[in-house]
Amino acid sequence: xxxVHGRARAVCLLAVALPLAGTLGGCASGLSRLRDxxxxxxxxxxxxxxxxxxxxxxxxxxxxxxxxxxxxxxxPEALAPLVYLPGRSGTLPIDLPREVRARGLLAYRVRPxxxxxxxxxxxxxxxxxxxxxxxxxxxxxxxxVLTGYDLSEGIAVLHxxxxxxxxxxxxxxxxxxxxxxxxxxxxxxxxxxxxxxxxEGILESLADLEEGGHALQAxxxxxxxxxxxAGDWRGTFGLGNAxxxxxxxxxxxxxxxxxxAVGSGRPEPLNNLALLLAQAGRAGEAxxxxxxxxxxxxxxGMDPSPYQxxxxxxxxxxxxxx
Length: 322
What we know:
By secondary structure, this protein is an alpha+beta fold. The chain is built from twelve helices and nine strands.
């Protein structure tokens, strides 16, 4: 289809322009705030294997535990060449989401707030986290996996590379996690979403998964998003793009129509639906929708040029969708 601006698609369907997840911020100054949020009083994630790490391999070991829980068991030794940097004697956080997505799993960066970290464990999701167990000026980096907590006892449970789970004071974990940059990573099977209300971060993670060649798995996530936030047009819009990518044209049409029904003033669902219908030989319907997309963009104060481009391709002699 036409070269519409936005995220690259195999057919250049227009995609949502989504902001990146929020920048790092401070965690709660103490544990009293945890009692003010809706967290289960205690939690324990089942199915996370205890793996003993070799020297400096806390990154591959923690990643192996996370992937095993998500249904993709691999050994730390197999993962080490992919994420471990011998020259730096460690693993960079930026390399971990890539390996999660490579296996068709949703890689989601947890919001940098301590209660968000515990909320994921409370929802049954193990969280790979990075701590600085040293000092700001003399760091001692360590990856581990949060698998539970007990608020009444003030204890978190970590798979930290030893022969058994490790109990750590919640206050200490908060400090070492914040000192390490507040990095927390989920690896979720298709159709399973993070616990929080971070819609932009979830959509960004789903789009990254789709662009990595896993449109089918991303589609399951978009469906789950649409069920959780039925009033948000972006869930069914992403589902339409994902279905198109796997060749499900009737399913894509249905999703775009549902997206338009929810976000009737948005130009994006109309634009992609017009491109889809034109490809199916329904040029008259397509032009009407493309014209409406241009009008909606102007009403919202958006740049109308991507939608005007679609309309030009649908005019007689315009070359049609490519």
